[in-house]
Amino acid sequence: MARWQQRRKPTARxxxxxxxxxxxxxxxRGKHLLTPTFRAGEQVCTSCGIVLYCPQCxxxxxxxxxxxxxxxxxxxxTHAKAEVQA
Length: 86
What we know:
The protein is about 35% helix and about 15% strand. It has 3 helices and 4 strands; from the N terminus they run H-E-E-E-H-E-H. It starts with 11 loop residues before the first helix and ends with a helix.
């Protein structure tokens, strides 16, 4: 095989674009890359920026609901179990 016919590895920028596209596709399927914020019961997706918060955790710690445009209530593991048991 001639040298000019060899396949080149994607550049770092191309790899990053591919990862971002893949992550956004996962977000559309509900598989967000969530990381906790400094507020109790609140998480943000590092790919699409959606904010998920537990209303009960925020009330418990006397914190206001997030004012982000794309913020949605989502009970944490502790409060989701309490809802199922009740």
